[in-house]
User: Which sequence fits this backbone?
């Protein structure tokens, strides 16, 4: 699959914004910074059993899965173009109670 060239993403953008869903609650996860400046995704429901997840680790897992599925074409995509590629190939990614519990919903 050939990926289109897209405009640069906003610096500091969360790669999975609008794609990552809470498996237990079926809500879109919201991005957040910790007081130490680390990036996280978390469920907007206060009583959700799933803890906030580290953004970088989750984004790396999802992108690794995309590159495994699409091969070299995906591996060569620059970082600033990855958000648009993810939106083009995924409708959402559901995450369970652990970061490794990812379910992919492909277009």
Assistant:
């Amino acid at each position: 699959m050939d990926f289109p060239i897209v405009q640069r993403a906003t610096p500091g953008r969360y790669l999975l914004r609008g794609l990552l869903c809470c498996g237990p609650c079926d809500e879109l996860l919201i991005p957040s910074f910790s007081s130490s400046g680390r990036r996280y995704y978390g469920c907007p429901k206060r009583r959700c059993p799933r803890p906030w997840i580290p953004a970088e680790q989750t984004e790396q897992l999802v992108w690794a899965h995309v590159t495994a599925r699409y091969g070299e074409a995906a591996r060569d995509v620059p970082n600033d173009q990855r958000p648009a590629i993810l939106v083009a190939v995924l409708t959402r990614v559901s995450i369970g109670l652990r970061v490794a519990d990812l379910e992919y919903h492909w277009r």
Remarks:
- DSSP finds three helices and six strands in the chain.
